[in-house]
Every structure is written in C-alpha cells, then in structure tokens.
Amino acid sequence: MHVLGGNNSRDDEEVMPVMMDPESSSQDTMLRGSAWMTAGSILSRILGAIYIIPWMAWMGSDYPAANALFAKGYNIYSLFLIISTAGIPGAISKQISHYNALDQYSTGNKLFKHGLKIMTFMGVIFGAIMYFGAPVLATLFTDGDPRSIPVIQSLAVAVLIIPILSILRGYLQGYSDMAPSAISQFIEQIARVIYLLVATYLIMIVNKGSYISAVVQSTFAAFIGAAVAILILVLALLRRLPKLRKLSQNGQPVADVNETNFTREIFEQAAPFIILDAGITFFNLFDQSTFNQFMRMFVNATSAQLDNYYSLFGFQANKLIMIVVSLSTAMAVTAVPILSGLYSKGNKDKIENQISNTLELFFFIMIPASLGMYAVAQPLWTTFYRYDALGVLMLQFSSIISILLGLFTVLSAVLQALYRNKLAIKYFVIGFIVKIAMQLPMIWLFHEFGPLVATSIGMAVVCWLMVRALHAIYPFNTGRITRRVSGIILFSLIMFISVIFVDWVVFHFVGNSDRIISVVALALEAGLGGVIYGYLVLKTSLADKILGSKVERIRRIFNIR
C-alpha cells in the first residue's frame, strides 16, 4: 500500500487537527482519545457479553460444557494473538509518535510499511503453528481434551489476519487518531456476534446438531469480525491519505535507515509489548493449566464440577470485568503516543504532569466502575447467566481485582512509552512468580476463589513496584493525586452504599432468580449510581480538576452550581 507520495505544497488547513504536535494540549488529546477508545471498547465488550444470553439458551443443557470449551479455546487464542502480533502495533504506535514529534513523518511511514510486511509474515507463521499444532496445544493447555482441537483450529484462521488489523490500528494511533480504531472495534464485534448467533441457531435449533460444532463456528466468528474491521480501517486510511502526504512532504526527509535496522528497531520496541500485553493472559492461562489438578488436592469434585468452577471465574466473571478493565486499556492506548512524543522532545515537566493526569483519569473512572459492578453483581449476573450465588460472589471479588488489572495495564503502558521496558518486564516477572508461588496455598485456603486471591496478590506486587519506580524517575505530584483520589473514593463509596441498599430492597421483596426483574433492577441501579457519582464530582468541581474546564458546560446543562 502506497501511503505517502506526490509533491503537493503545504496547506495548514488540510493538516489533520488530531495528527499534530503531541505536546500541545496533551490533556485534551488524552481525553479525546480515551473517549473514543473507551466508547469503542465498552460498546464492543457489552455486545460481546450480551450475546451470551441467546447463545446460552440455544445451547440448552450443553451450555456448561460448551462454555468451558469456548473459554479454553479463547485463552489459547489470546496468547497466540499477542505472540503473533508480537507487540508490533504498540511499538509502531510508539515509534510513529516518536518520529512525528521530531517532524520525521516520512521515516515513520517507512517504518509502518516495513512493519506491515513483518505482520503479514507473522500471521501466516503463527496461524499455521496454531492450526497444525492444535493437538499439542490441547495437551498442554486443556488437559488433553480432544474437543478443543477443532476449536483451536477455527481460531487459527483469525490469527492469520489479525496481525494486519492490529498494525493498521497502531499506525493511526501513533497519530493520536483513535476514532478509526474505536469504530472498527465496535463493527468488528457486531460482525462477529451476528455470525456467531446465526451459526449457533442453525446448528443447535434448526439442525439439532452438536454443541462442539456450534462452538467451533462461534470461535470462527473471530475471523469474520477481523476481516470486516480491516476493511473499515483501510477505508479510513484511504480517506486520510491526502493529509498524511502533506505531513510527510513538509517534514524532514526519510532518515537513512535500512530495512535491517528497521526490523531491529521494531522488535526491540515490540518485545516488551508482547510480554506485558500478554500479562493478564499469562495469569489466566496459568489458572487454566493448574486449576483442576490443584483443586483435586483439596476438593472431592468431578471433572464437570471443576469445569463449572473454572468457567465461573475464568470465563463468565472474567468476561464481565473485562468490560471495566477495557476502560484502562483505552487510556493506555491513548497515553502511549502522547508520552512517547513528550519523551522525544525531552520535556520532563510535561511528562510528570501527563503521568499525573493519566493516573487521576484512571482512578476517576475505574474506582466507581469497579465498585459499581460489585454493587450490581446480582442483577448483572442474573441478566447474563441466570442466578447463581457462587457466580455472583465470583463477580464481586473479580470486580475489586479489576482495579489492579487495570492499573497494571496503564502503568506498564506508561513505562513502555517512556522507554523503561526492562523495568516493566522485570516487575511483571516478579509479580507472576508471586502469583505462581501463592496459587497452591491460596487454593488450599479459599478453594475455587484461590486463583483470584493469588492473582490479586501478584498484581498488587507488580503495581506497587511500577508506581515506586515511575515516581523515582519522574517525581509526579503524589500529593495532588492523593487528594483527588481520596475524593473519588469517598464519592464512589457513597454511590456504592446507595446502590447496595436499593439492590437489597429490590431482591429482598421480589426474589433473585427472575431475569426480567434483574434487567429492570440493573438499569435502575446503574442509572442511580451514575447520577449520584456524576452529581457529586460535578458539584464539588472534582470533575473539572481531572477532566478540564470543558466540564463546566455539562454543569450548566444540568444546572449544577
């Protein structure tokens, strides 16, 4: 694909407003980018959870086995996805922003085109390994379950093309242009869910077929979604070509860097993204690989019961809390090019301020979101999965852990954007070792909750080490963050207590198993929580301090003084 070329003269009015100096108004860029990525991520995650309702109904009595099979296949797929993309999209985003900050747009585009070749090659290689190595992967990660082999093979087809999708997103994100990524993410999920539901309905309801065949088609839907998303991004890139050319033509000439140097540069920056992007997946795969064996040491349970326990926290609860964690992923994706640009310009003061802004925005969103999910866990779980007391407890515990998972995502992205890759990897490895060491004793103490406890301990260690190191290098304003986060926690707790009270009243009088009532209660409680938290942060001007002066417009609309 020829991205840059021609000899047009400079026209400042044609230069994309988002694709400009990463130093100017970095808070606005962060908020705008986070808003786009959050919207795309949240909508796609919600859609990815909603499909469970009809999917579960059509699976009927086979649902527990189908759900566990789906979860096992997807965990392996997630790992291969991260390896096959090799962290290159994050590295491309980071390096594109670096070159743009130095007015070397042509060099950045040359890097992108070389990266596109690498990603195509990686997709072919790892798609083939996953497809032909499916029996070995099933032995390693699913306790030799033969049912998982066709599921793994169906997902291998998606691995073939998703590296291309990822680098297209990384390129546009390097210009802090988040809208195409967000839109393509949502449309990708729509296409995936439509194919998944149609295929499942035809197999299970029309043809009365096997749930294994339905799961295979449900996982193959990842390829359908990715293909549609690539089309969306290519169209977006074509629309931006004239403006991209102008930036390139009027910047510095292409640096004298050969393809070998580009390849080395890409993989040097990509390696940390591989490890750290896969961080949560490594934790999940360790749970998946050890859960049944460790549980059998302390619990007398059948394989079906153990599959159900694992599915509750490893797939069902995890699917819901990842809606919340995706908020932090959106912030991390947005923060990388901003911080990388500031680092390239050597602006230490602005880096410190941007770190403070990023952490404050993270806590401003994540704390109320996590506590809110804890408060509405019962109607939320019943809406998606039918009432299950153990499942509700799993979701509540997982909701609190999501704060640590999100913080790890943001902190690792910040360290990588500031070229502290080795530190980020070192601290993750330490935390993962802690997780491994704590797994068996935590399962002994807390049985099916043990893996979650071990994860929380390991992630807490990682986050503490990262914050400490980051502050030592860039002493951001901890006093300001502490004051604002204290307000966030206070207002979140007021919201939490209010919603918990309403939840208790509703389910005390009407019971806890009706899905329709749960949907109504969920909407009521979520709306109430949002109104309470929103009013408090607007009334006290906390929102203004974190989100900027534009919040004043919202206050005027709702007449909050």
TrEMBL record:
Protein name (database record): Export protein
Protein location: Cell membrane
Record's signal peptide: none
Membrane topology category: Multi-pass membrane protein
Main location: membrane
Keyword Membrane: yes
Residue spans crossing the bilayer: 35-56, 76-97, 118-140, 152-172, 193-214, 220-238, 270-286, 320-340, 361-381, 393-415, 427-446, 452-476, 488-510, 516-538
A Pfam family it matches: Polysacc_synt
Keywords: Cell membrane, Membrane, Transmembrane, Transmembrane helix
Example of a GO cellular component annotation carried by this entry: plasma membrane
Family annotation (InterPro entries): PG_synth_SpoVB (IPR024923), Poly_Biosynth_Transport (IPR050833), Polysacc_synth (IPR002797)
